[in-house]
Amino acid sequence: MPPKRSNEETDKQTRIAIVNSDKCKPKRCRQECKKSCPVVRMGKLCIEVAPNDKIAKISEELCIGCGICVKKCPFEAITIINLPSNLDKDTTHRYSQNAFKLHRLPTPRPGEVLGLVGTNGIGKSTALKILAGKLKPNLGRFVDAPDWTEILAYFRGSELQNYFTKILEDDLKALIKPQYVDQIPKAVKGLVKEMLDKRSELDNQAQIMDFLDLKNVVDRSIGDLSGGELQRFAIAMVCVQRADIFMFDEPSSYLDVKQRLNAALTIRSLLGPDKYVIVVEHDLSVLDYLSDFICCLYGVPGAYGVVTMPFSVREGINIFLDGFVPTENLRFREESLIFKVAESATEEEIKRMSRYEYPNMVKTMGSFRLEVKSGQFTDSEILVMLGENGTGKTTFIRMLAGKLHPDDGSADVPVLHVSYKPQKISPKHTGTVRQLLHEKIREAYIHPQFITDVIKPLKVDDIIDHEVQTLSGGELQRIALCLCLGKPADVYLIDEPSAYLDSEQRLVAAKVIKRFILHAKKTGFVVEHDFIMATYLADRVIVFEGKPSVDTLANSPQSLLIGMNKFLELLSITFRRDPNNYRPRINKLNSVKDMDQKRAGQYFFLEDKFLVVSSHPQDIRRMPVSTADVLQVCSIVAEQEEINVCFTESLKGAGIAGVSAFTLGVIFGPVGVAVGGAAGGLAGARFCKKYQPFWKILTTMKKEDKERLCVHMMAIIQKLDITDAAMLLALVTNKGVGYRNIVDGLMLYAQQISY
């Protein structure tokens, strides 16, 4: 029987100590970590630090994991982490003592796209550098680094052995598209066409430029390009060169939905039998669309990262969202990330009090013209603006904020207190984050509700004492969001809150915005290109259409289903929902699902149960019509037909108008409806002065009223021989045979309810 390992031996192998070099300041403290350490008091050199040192050093072999130094450090520079017991080996690289280390490596496969998903600071860029041959893995031995013979022996028997052998023999050339494309103008000067011609080694330049829509900027200087143009230029620079390994670090930043999918197709066009493609992406719907298989990275940001084994695309992303790796029986996040749209807009907890309106507006800026259709919005509501880059979303937001004024002849925008988070964040404050928050949002910053809803989820406390000028893009985004929500206002206008945030932070930010708008009973207008975040946030959507940068139209707010359907139809993309966590998934172009949904005119679904899974009618998955289905259909019909109902004081007027139209319609047909409606309307005018859209009433309707409505509508649905939810939704969306029966039944019920 083998001897048992002592606890001390196990502890040595599974504990790491991290000292943050930016936070550790021995000259400004009394070395509390060393003085309080019980191991040091026993005479052992567990912590070594002197006032003149740059950083403290902690011996992981001697550390007992008591955590006293973590609590005593005045700058919160120390982190002691107990690793999972299966991580006592497989260390691929460690930068130095008490610094970040990476366990294992992703395994690329020729002819397939490998997607990497994980939070910021978890080791994705380190893994890319190692796989590109730009960083030599030291297997955790940062003092006595191993040579390549030893490294190849370490990877013996795996696919990585052949991979690194080819890199050593210079058989593989690697290209990396950098993460921060806004830094490119500082390093590269010249015109776009000159740079592409200089680097072009293949005959695909014209095709790539056409696909990435770069033909309009070929004669422009690189320093004059916008963020989206720089991103497309950086992707094109990689795609026109000859290489064996193509690596793309966040290729969707600054791009709109259409451009993201074009970029994804461009990247996939590089695939060949001996070509490797690796992509790091935080937009999960784009990563899903782009990748063939996925490696997740988990751990503690800035401390350690672990690469999982390869999974299929759906399974890999679901594992990341679930926070549990079944192959290792390990949970790396306390709670799963699930965002069910149908439940996120629960009716009982939303009490809508106020209603605002904005008029028809026109704004001309040089050769660009934006027309805005009038619309309404209420409190506790989020409206997401969908459209390509250059369609006027930011212009519309600035008009609502009062930063821009409509052209002469356009009606005045309502005067509202507005809080605005701009698209581009340029910090001007010279102090710390704490000073900035104290100066800008003092009351909210110390309010317990705001701390619970915003400060803690966004992890502002982790960077509270950092200098604002030294913050990264993601940290700046979190602070900007915090400042925006902390200002007292009627309307919160948030432009691209997902920029620079990783996948997990995006979902957290979406939940923060939604919870704050709900609790504060305010209205939010959000511009967002990340489709998962947009569908989670939206109560209603505003679709922008037209020719970008020339002539565009902002439609009136529509329900999530109708608006998304219209927007996706413009892009010719179809979505389905994952049955496990309800995240939107893009259907592959011209796949069976894609073709079936396009034929049915159903580009977007709220629930996976509505999906057509085969082109053959006998294979369609049948789901019985539920109460939720009936309420959803009623809301769609009420909005499409603009059905209004009156409040308590005007109930008699609505009754007279509706009953007159209905009665004469039965007797005399369509002519009778017109005559009866006119007569009833005149008679009801004495009583009826205040109407409310019926689809809004549905969100605040009492439970018993909803049940009566469902019973009433179910009787009509059964007479139409509708047996499943897919048939019902298709009938309503396409206004098929029997649609008028549903409309008439809903109008009849609308006349009976009392508010």
End-to-end distance, in Å? 79 Å
Helical fraction equals 25-40%
Strand content: 15-25%
Number of helices: 31
Total beta strand runs: 30
Task: Work out the radius of gyration.
Answer: 30 Å
Provide the residue-averaged pLDDT.
81
Stretches where pLDDT is under 50 for at least 5 consecutive residues are 1-13, 342-351, 608-623, 648-666, 670-675, 681-689
- The coarse silhouette is globular
Characterize the main sheet. Answer: 9 strands, mixed
Indicate the structural class: alpha/beta
What do these coordinates show?
- Belongs to the ABC transporter superfamily. ABCE family.
- GO terms for molecular function: ATP binding; ATP hydrolysis activity.
- The chain is an alpha/beta fold.
- Helix content is 39%, strand content 16%.
- It has 31 helices and 30 strands.
- The strands form eight sheets. Strands 5, 6, 7, 8, 9, 10, 11, 12 and 13 form a nine-stranded mixed sheet that branches.
- Helix 21 (503-520) packs parallel to helix 22 (531-537) and helix 29 (703-719) packs antiparallel against helix 31.
- The longest helix has 18 residues, at 503-520.
- It is globular, with a radius of gyration of 30 Å.
- The N and C termini lie far apart (79 Å).
- The relative contact order is 0.07.
